[in-house]
Amino acid sequence: DPSVQGLYELYRSWGIIKPDEANGGWHPYVRGGITFDSRDKRSNPSRGIYADAFFTYSAAFNAAYGNQASAGYNHLQFNFTFRHYIPCYYDKNGINRITFAYRIGTQNLIAGRSPFYMNNYLNTLFIQRVYYEGLGGGNSVRGMMANRILAYGFAYANIEFRFRVVNF
User: Which partner for 96 in 10, 43, 46, 73 could form a disulfide, CB atoms 3.0-4.6 Å apart?
Assistant: First the structure.
């Protein structure tokens, strides 16, 4: 029902979402960091560590590109992720059937200002998917609805046991 205001419209009327960020913007970025990877395989690893630490600098452009006045939203973020995969049970053929996996991570704004529409992106050093994604869903914090966290900084963790039922 268009006559009922949603959260977005309320946030705009309350000034939480400023007029210069209400229509989005164009933000190219540069990333640099370091990665350590000792996993036995990239897809469904059963042992090893994957860790990365990096900075992301996002620039913003003024109204010359579209109808945007977000030139004041240049910002620098720091990300850290640590994933550890531990084999727990091998069958009689020496195949790992149960893996314990955990992950901890953080993303924090350390300089500048970030517009609200950039605050749900979970930065990665290497782009692994076609689209950006935030916390939640099947790829970061399982069990939480995707893209629901909008914050200048956050930390997250998850643990899981992975069971390999059939090899094919």
Answer: 46
